Amino acid sequence: MRVSTRIAGAAAIGLLASVIGVGVVTAADHVDAPGVQGNPAADITDFYAWHKDDGKIVAIITFAGLTEVGQPGTYDASTLYGIHIDNNADNVADENVWIRFGQNGAGDWGVQVEGLAAEPVVGPVGTIIDGPLGLRVFAGLRDDPFFFDLDGYLATLDTGTLSFNKDNDTFALTNVTAIVVEISTDAAAGGSDKIQMWATTRQ
Question: What is the pTM of this model?
């Protein structure tokens, strides 16, 4: 089984000092190790997490970066996505949200989410799906929000001379496939005021 992990922040998304006081925290890796290159469904490009004032946490996994506009989303029934939550600071997940894709008899793709709710949440990709306990899910193609001059970065590595252009976004006009999960802060935190979150893929 192949496992890929994206940890946001220096050691994890610690959601900084507090679930209540955190801003947006992200991690990015758009040019990954050889082990997952050529396997876009398993290649996490970014992991974002933030809290909302309504007592919810939003966590987003994006993958299959540099998808050209007009191309479909990337869905793979053999890839299992995980969002992991540590709420007692031992660096071990106390809560897990598992996401997978599948097709119906007509070949249409759907998404299934398990964890933090008594029953799996299931629905078609490209739509907002509401589940119990405040769980809300979206999976589908989105414009890549990551801004970075990858060309300048590679040129810098090649020449040793800083070659970044602040106006050049290598990822402009490209898409990613995104999994967006909105969960109850209370359910995720388990009474703690600090949590860590990270994302994985498994095949």
Answer: 0.82
